[in-house]
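Checklist before submission:
- one chain only
- standard amino acids only
- sequence pasted in full

Submission:
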Amino acid sequence: MPRPKVIIQLYPMLPAEGEEGRKAARPIGRDAALYHEVLHDWMEIGKAADGLGVWGFSTIEHHLHSEGYEVGPNPGVLNAWWAGQLKTMRVGALGYVMATQDPIRVAEETAILDHITKGKFWVGLARGYQSRWANILGQFVDTPATVSDGSANDEKNRDVFEERTEMLLQCWTEDSLELKGRYYEAPYPLETGVVDYPAHRIAAAAGTEGEIDAAGAVRKVSVVPKPYQEPYPPVMVAASKSVDSIRFCAKHGFIPVYFMTLEGVVENARIYVEESKRFGREFQLGERQNIVRWPHVCESRVEYDRRLAEWDLDIYKNFYGPFFPQFPQEPDTDFLENMKQSGIFIGGTVQDSIDQWQRIYDEVPAEYITLIWHYAQVPKEDVIEELELFMSHVWPKLETPDFG
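Returned file contents:
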């Protein structure tokens, strides 16, 4: 029987001795020697995963984290580096925050990565929820970052994300185009085009049809190169709450990536199947679905608690909690127990892990699994050891239908 495709997602999280150690090391995100060590050890994890049958290796786009929680400002650079070192594993990111990105630049960069990898590349996209950096990098459209809360800011963030994602698809698939949206247009300004282009004669004769008008103005753009894969690489979209995100994925055949509880995954996976039918796509339950979990596979439940406390508690309490209302912040919260009940952490002994994953797959036999370790708060050796245990003992127990 087919097995799920496993993706490893690492940020990294620069290591400190808990919350107080992070404060004492301020600003640890600017520690160049530490980042250098973490960066190169990261490659060793990738090479280990490459030999274990892992499908993909991934990172994140987050900026300006001086406290060192998620130091991932340029996923494309990392993907290119990894592609030259890994043999069979695919690379990608979860993902480009489109509300802060120029769609043409994303189209160019990802097409090049697709060629570098010879098609072993996927593109991850996200709306962006961190105002600390998204409001700065996205200021040219005054795009407010927010969680999915139904507010006016939420709606604007979604509008910008969807507009630029639609434009990204145009850039990949159309030889020449005009981008006309509420928040972005090209050529700029659309009313006149780019007037008096000095090399208009050769562009008119050798470029795409309609790029240059009779007066020598640039009236359309042609984004080069085209992707290696036809019509473009697989696209994954992060989803933590909103059904609208699932409908948008179904419309385009994108792969939703579920940062949510099993109940949320079940509900949204069914919506995805039904919504896809409206666009002429027949998918089985679990097909083109990606479930995210933070795992620890170890020798005992006591050890599982220790790892959660030492490796995950700091970021859960101080970073995830303030952003997401489903993670409580009351002073008397038993954070360790709350983490275990949150639905996003999964682990314990090998058998505990098998049992938990089989419960998930009884409900939604997802085509993809994304596993996140808070490397390098989780030491390199422990990430590799837990990954080996997962791939050798847990993964073989999970079955998916033949999705074709």
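Reviewer check: The chain has 13 helices and twelve strands.
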